Amino acid sequence: MTSYSDGTRAVHAGLPEPVVGEPFLPGPVFAAPYHLDPATGPGENGYARTEHPTRRALEAAIGALEGAPTLVFASGQAAITALLLSVLRTGDTVALPADGYFTVRAFAEGTLRDLGVKTVLVPTAGPYPDLTGVRLVLLETPANPGLDVCDVRAIAAAAHEAGALVAVDNTTATPLGQNPLALGADLVVASGTKALTGHSDVLLGYVSAGDPELLGKVETWRKQTGGVPGAFDCWLAHRSIATLDLRLARQSANAAAVAEFLLARDDVSGVRWPGLPSDPSYPIASAQMRRVPGVVSFDLGSAERVARFLTEAKLVFAATSFGGVHTTADRRAQWGDDTSPGFVRFSCGIEDTSDLLADLTAALDSSV
Ligand SMILES: *Cc1c(COP(=O)(O)O)cnc(C)c1O
Q1: Which residues form a coiled coil (predicted)?
Q2: pLDDT score recorded for residue 2
Q3: C-alpha distance from residue 334 to each of 266, 303, 331 (Å)
Q4: Among 11, 82, 335, 362, which residue carries the largest CB count within 10 Å?
């Protein structure tokens, strides 16, 4: 499969061998328990918290794109907390991005601290401290929402030297944007709620790892705590992954156009998109990533101007989350994270570029 290009890999990821009279992607299996052999007991499927055919097919799909065995979870947070709690023990230290997904920091400052796990916060763009004594380094690149990127290969080498494990949150990039395991990371964690599935209709998370012992710990955690996604969500996610390459291509092209457009306006500041040659993230992003995702960030100066802009825009939905087929924008400070009041995370959808630029022009002009 790896010899094919991205579009082909996305379409065929996790599909079973063709069987005459059967669908390409078998429908969701709705079962908690399955029939057992009365004499020999459990076979491939016994109980859906531990074995599920629809979930296995999705895991095969994501695993094919990430390049390692994969476990899916009910949400990105279920996956990330499963990783943290199955790897970290009292007395351990974890390094987390200071500018990454804020619920992870909140979890570290609450539950992990109460369990006696120490957290070191490191800005994604660095500088990275001496990692001696750190058990796990979680990177998020590009970081959400500020879009700094970090050099996974270099940090993984330094972390391994210090005896630490390295996990990368691959939510924003997706496995078609970068493959952290190939760059030296031990684990990938991600939310599949965003661009991976891309239709804003499913919550999903996953953990991928090449080391069976490491992934085994996460699997035991999942088996015993039960944060699995349902059959229909797994099927919907798998169905959606077929178009990942197409969606990313349009989102990325839209982001390139939107970022250039915003840069040229003097009523918009702080434009960030790692694919812009003038962006501080560009040198590492262009060396490390296979494509840059459709998320752009910028500042409109005040909460009021963001509200006017979003009220005027016809093609930009005010919404959190990102990576979907519809263009959305989120004023992050409304959720209590530490961005400035006018900071906007803008997620380009798959609308036509010219329509989007015309809508943005009109909405910005009338919201000054
Ligand atoms: C959304 C997100 C998460 C959490 O995922 P959910 O599916 O919402 O639980 C984790 N990391 C990043 C970078 C995210 O954007």
Answers
A1: none
A2: 53
A3: 24, 9, 6
A4: 82
